[in-house]
Design brief:
The protein has 56 residues and is mostly helical. 79% of the residues lie in helices and 0% in strands. It has helices spanning 2-9, 15-42, 47-50, 52-55. The chain is rod-shaped.
Length: 56
């Protein structure tokens, strides 16, 4: 049982996984921040322009 648990948990604590996870979180936070900033700057009636940076 211990071997199976270790086999399932070990891939999530590698350096590559942690870097990928952190960069994904940072990218998501930046996307949300830019969307909120542009929504306030352009107004809610032009919300579709706020999605452009997320697509690019």
């Amino acid at each position: 049982m211990k071997k199976i648990k270790q086999y399932l948990i070990d891939p999530f604590f590698t350096v590559e996984f942690l870097r990928y996870f952190v960069s994904g979180v940072v990218a998501t936070l930046v996307n949300v921040f830019i969307y909120m900033l542009m929504s306030r700057w352009l107004g809610l009636d032009r919300w579709y322009y706020s999605d452009v940076p997320a697509i690019i």
